[in-house]
Amino acid sequence: MEKKKPKKVFVQGAIPPEKIANSIANHQSKTNIGAHSIFLGQIRADTIDGKTVSAIDYSAYEEMAENAFHEIREAAFSKFDITCAHIYHSLGKVKAGELCFFVFTSSAHRKNAIEACNYFVEEIKAKVPIFGKEIFKDETHQWKVNN
């Protein structure tokens, strides 16, 4: 069996809503799909020690991260009966209110799509080397704790 090449996951800056709409629209012709599940991660304007987060600046060990995404993707396809899966994560600065993480799974039935989507989110958060630096309104910053 031919080894699949890792798909590109990273998007520079915020994930535009049009990308999400286009992903959904592109699946209308796939009539074997009966369900989609979508997770959207959005930057919160958290208040930490009296300071408000205005953005997060994401960085990653890109090659290592792309390989981790690929391994998670392959595991998901062997674990769940899904038709397709798309993952996008931001790199660079993403402002509060903007989208930074998009997982889109499809299958014949909703249970597989939902379970696979949840699996992707949890595995990615636990295993992919992506780092976020919280930038506060006063321009100070700190490394984000992933939770």
Please describe the structure with a list of short key phrases separated by commas or semicolons.
Aldehyde Oxidoreductase, domain 3; 3 helices; 8 strands; single chain; 37% strand; 8-stranded mixed beta sheet; alpha+beta; 147 residues; globular
Written account of the structure:
The chain is an alpha+beta fold and 147 residues long. It has a single domain, classed as Alpha-Beta Complex (Aldehyde Oxidoreductase, domain 3). Helix content is 31%, strand content 37%. It is built from three helices and eight strands. Strands 1, 2, 3, 4, 5, 6, 7 and 8 form an eight-stranded mixed β-sheet that branches. A hairpin with a 4-residue loop joins strand 7 and strand 8. The longest helix is centred in the middle third of the chain and has 18 residues. The radius of gyration is 16 Å and the shape is globular. The termini are far apart.
What gap, in angstroms, lies between the N and C termini? 37 Å
How many beta-strand elements?
8
Structural class, please? alpha+beta
Bulk shape: globular
Number of domains: 1
* Unreliable residue stretches: none
Helix amount: 25-40%
> What is the CATH H-level superfamily?
Molybdopterin biosynthesis MoaE subunit
The helix count comes to: 3
Rg over CA atoms, rounded to whole Å, is 16 Å
In what range is the share of β-strand residues? 35-45%
CATH architecture: Alpha-Beta Complex
Q: What is the helix/strand order?
A: EHEEEHEEHEE
CATH topology: Aldehyde Oxidoreductase, domain 3
Give the overall average pLDDT.
93
What about the largest sheet? Answer: 8 strands, mixed
In the CATH scheme, the class would be Alpha Beta
